[in-house]
Amino acid sequence: MKPGFVPIRTGLTEHIKGGGLGPFDLGIYAYLHLHVDYATGIYTGCALGIAFGFGDPRIQGQIQKSLRRLKDRGFINYPKGNGSRGPYRILINKYEPRGGELSGTRLNAWKHGELCQPEYEAGNGEGNGERNGERNGKSIGGGTYSRIQEVQEVKPSPRAKRSGGDSPEADPRHSPIRGLIQDLHFQKFGVKCEWDGSEAKALNRVLRRNPSWTGPQLSAMVRNRFDSDELPPDRPRRWLPGLGSYVAGPLDRFARLKTADDQASQAPLSPSEIARRQQAGEEWR
């Protein structure tokens, strides 16, 4: 649980009253604020991951449409899709980082348009254009902050301080890999991936012990795991400690690296090849 409170602009009230921000979109916007990286104003995830966050993967399509509306109205910005699956960065426009080097600035998510590159400006609420709450001549919310959720502040234990903590926010690789695991698990087994604090701790331990592993390398290992043979639907906390076993590729049912011949042998035979093997008395099934 993140400590403190989550700020959101009271200027949203005008959009709500004017019909420009419906209950569903407001809920998604609030969800992004609750799970964003507080130090940057950037949420890393995808519609399916958000759906899992609400406990119902069936609403993925509704969330995709909601994110599109929020982007069209300038509340958020994210890169144009390229057909690939998995998490991506969502920038919350006019977010004011609450710690770190960017504290005291404001995120301009639209400074570079569709390039979706974050730009941090002085966060004093003054000035023109986007810093005054306008994009393309349309107000996108302004005013002071109000609290949308009070949460209990939890002090980390001395052990957690020594080890760097198990907070998902401690490593920027955590959220994208978690989302990828949940996405691939649902695709393969058709059920929601079990995920709680024990999974988060297991993933953070892997990341902490392997600081040189990049996000793409970790993603490849996770994909190799789900492409392996006779895969059980175990909870991630059971197999995450051995994630490095998949660095070279998927494994067969004997936990050995699958070769190109292994993968080719799984391809369906053509009718002509089946006929040839039948005529030669070879096994073809």
Q: What does this 3D model show about the protein?
A:
A 3-stranded antiparallel β-sheet has the order 2-4-3. It is built from 11 helices and 9 strands. Helix 2 crosses helix 4 (60-72), helix 3 crosses helix 4 (60-72) and helix 6 (174-189) packs parallel to helix 8. The chain folds into 2 domains: 5-154, no CATH class; 175-265, no CATH class. The chain is of the alpha+beta class.
Main structural class: alpha+beta
The tally of structural domains comes to 2
Question: Unreliable segments (pLDDT under 50, ≥5 consecutive)?
Answer: 125-166
Distance between the termini: 53 Å
Rounded to the nearest angstrom, the radius of gyration is 23 Å
Strand content: 5-15%
- Total beta-strand segments: 9
Helix tally?
Answer: 11
Residue-averaged pLDDT: 78
Provide a short characterization of the protein structure:
Strands 2-4-3 form a three-stranded antiparallel β-sheet.
Per-chain topology:
Layout: E1 5-9, H1 12-17, H2 23-35, E2 42-45, H3 47-53, H4 60-72, E3 76-77, E4 88-92, E5 105-108, E6 119-122, E7 134-135, E8 138-139, E9 145-150, H5 158-163, H6 174-189, H7 197-209, H8 215-226, H9 236-239, H10 260-265, H11 271-280
Antiparallel strand pairs: 1-9, 2-4, 3-4, 5-6, 7-8
Helix pairs in contact: 2-4, 3-4, 6-8
